[in-house]
Amino acid sequence: MKPFPSLFLIICLSFFVSRSISQTKIDSLTIEQALSKYAVKNPVFSPDGKKAVVVVSQTGVDKDLPASHIWLIDVATKTIRQFSNSKKSETNPKWSPDGNQLAFLSNRNEVNQIFLMDLNGGEAMQLTQAKTPISTFEWNPISNTIAYLAEEPASAEEEKRKADQYDEQAISESAKPTRVFIIDVNTKLVKQFTHQNWEVEEMKWMPSGDALLLITQSLPLAEVPVYQLNSLSLKDSSVVNISSPTHSFWGNIQISPDGNMIAYNASRGDGPDADELFLQSLKTGVAKNITAKSIDLPIRTFKFIDNNHLVAVVQKGFSTNLFSINDNGNATEYPIDQNIGSFDVAANGTILFESFSATKPSEVWLMGADKKPMQVSHFNKVFEGIALAKPKFITYKSFDGLPIEAALYKPAKSSSKLLPLVVFIHGGPTSAFINDYSAWVQLFVQQGYAVFCPNIRGSTGYGQDFLIANRNDWGGNDFKDIMYGVDMLIAKEKIDSNRMGISGWSYGGYMAEWAITQTNRFKAAMAGAGIANLASEFGTEDNAAYDRWFFGTPYEHPDNFSKHAPISFIKNAKTPTLIIQGENDKIDPVGQSQELYRALHYYNVPTELVLYPNEPHGFKQIKHNIDFYKRMINWFDKYVLSN
Q1: For the ranges 54-68, 89-103, 572-586, which has the lowest average pLDDT?
Q2: What distance in Å separates the CA atoms of residue 462 and residue 479, rounded to the nearest whole number?
């Protein structure tokens, strides 16, 4: 189900902290307002640490949105201004080694190309003329050249067949090799450096500037991905294989300043998530997990700050904190009492980071030698005038005594009446709710619902044993975690047991589907991009390695897949169920929702299937999201509030 690699929380909707609401704040939040916000990502310091850039993305109903642009920060004055601008988007900014130029990717001419801008401003200059979109690039640390990745273009014969309407697709031949190119920024001369039948997943320069490290997969792609670390020499294009993990769950390589070590995320065993930090010697090939014992929590983004120390974002329950970690795994938390997403660290120790909370969606912050974080941006200032809900964090014991952490949101206005409840389940399952803004939650609370967001067993942020506790057990003890939480709320939090619904996306959609086959306590359900039939999903999804880790294969273990599939128990379902699905979803394919809809319809259960064209696993088009939210809220109002 969950795509790999997933090095940050996929489909992680979130939660917040403070208690007071200003009397001047308004209570109304339209769906359009809830979905129209800014996100800041990819902070990068200039080489001298005096400047920095971030990518600012804006979503909304305007015809030119969503769009991403680069903003420039003056570190000394802590001021920020827009640096790039077009009717398309700019992403992935990277400074030249001398700090005088900024390179970035932009689709302003339809196909993603590398553009250059002088630090002093002026028009952006298109550097590359690649025939296929450039996926990523890296400056050579010691010269004025840039390496980039692009898929091999179709041959003349392939183009002719397509023009003649021969558009068949042979699956084993459909993936095109990724090519490594190097362009001289001064002369614009381009040289291709790879000819192997590879899909290149990652690329990093060695500090010496004479070789590239690549993570590759051989084509045709294997059902279970096999990633290989390689060194590509610029001198003669020779390739040397480097010792690599033997499972699929690893990636995100970083190289130490002296070029002797690499760091990467990987799973402790053979899955299911690349969430621990490994160091590996490039000389001996020996790798060690440096955080399993010292931290035992997910390591998200990280970077070397010298040859023996890294800085990393560590997830602990609903929080994401910044830690300094040495090469023995000893960790020290930074004195920043805020959630942190992407970040960068300058040579003098100044930290630029993205931070977020319930009432303050993503903004840019700086912390210098005084250890006092200061907010630099105010992109989401409009939310300061809206009375957003804040969570009550709860820890309760499940049926077997296992502690489960959850967030509960209630309407701000107190009432003696019992509240209707929406149970919201996150995706993954190796994901988690974290302390961040969630339009989904806020809109339901505004409608008068309490919203319950439990991090049930299988969630990240609670240690390895908790992470793997639902292996071969979806719908088992994880479902009991949900229901024990619901019973706890009914007993302690003024929840109306006769007015409850359940919703979720991906694995959360699966759990909503499972719930309607196991209990009639919920009066409505919304299953988004869920899984009705584990076996048929395994045979049609992209990259089945994740589900294979949990259940094996349906060819060898058919009973495993059957006994955990909602479709096996569908005759028990009575709950009115709204089914939402993107037609281009390759992670949980559209057939899963169609199977569920047909089965519910057969048993005369009130149901509706809504398909959205051109949408993948996570919706991209704002109007599709607006329509989906309206339908979901109306569905719950009709079947939950009417009881």
Answers
A1: 54-68
A2: 18
Residue 140 phi/psi, 5-degree rounding, is: -65, 130
User: What contacts 401, CB < 8 A, 6 or more positions away?
Assistant: none
pLDDT in tens, 422-459: 999 999 999 999 999 999 999 999 999 999 999 999 99
Amino acid at 48: D
What tokens does 236 get?
């003669």
Over residues 447-472, mean pLDDT:
97
Cα separation, 580 vs 273, in Å, equals 26
Predicted model pTM? 0.93
Amino acid at 117: M
Distance, in Å, from the CA atom of 446 to the CA atom of 453, rounded to the nearest integer, reads: 16
Residue found by looking up tokens 């001064």 in the block: 186
Query: Diameter of the chain by CA atoms?
Result: 77
Residue holding tokens 């273009």? 153
Three-class SS state of 593: helix
Within 456-603, strands assigned E span 495-505, 524-528, 577-582
Q: 211, 217 in Cβ contact below 8 A? A: no
Does 6 have pLDDT greater than 50? no
Residue 26: pLDDT band (50, 70, 90) is low
Question: What is the strand order of the sheet 524-528 is part of?
Answer: 391-397, 403-409, 450-455, 419-425, 495-505, 524-528, 577-582, 607-612
Where does the pLDDT of residue 155 fall: very low under 50, low under 70, confident under 90, or very high at 90 and above?
Answer: confident
Question: Which residue in this structure is represented by tokens 């939040």?
Answer: 29
Question: Quick one: pLDDT at residue 7?
Answer: 33
Residues 6 or more apart whose CB falls under 8 angstroms from that of 246 comprise 270
Q: Which residues contact 163 (CB under 8 A, 6 or more apart)?
A: none
Which of 408, 344, 427 is CA-nearest to residue 12?
427
For every residue of 480-492, DSSP letters joined together read HHHHHHHHHHHHH
In the prediction, which pLDDT does 414 show? 63
Asked if 385 contacts 26 with a C-beta cutoff of 8 angstroms, the reply is yes
Tokens 């160091």, residue located: 279
The predicted model gives 330-355 an average pLDDT of: 96
Q: Average pLDDT, stretch 293-297?
A: 95
3-state secondary structure of 198: strand
Distance CA 155, CA 585 (A): 28
H helices of 300-376, in order, are none
Q: Nearest CA to 275 among 463, 43, 3? A: 463
d(CA 317, CA 453): 12
Q: Domains along the chain?
A: 91-159+171-382 (2.120.10.30), 389-639 (3.40.50.1820)
Q: Which residues of 159-181 are buried (b: 16+ CB within 10 A; e: fewer)?
A: eeeeeeeeeeeeeeeeebbbbbb
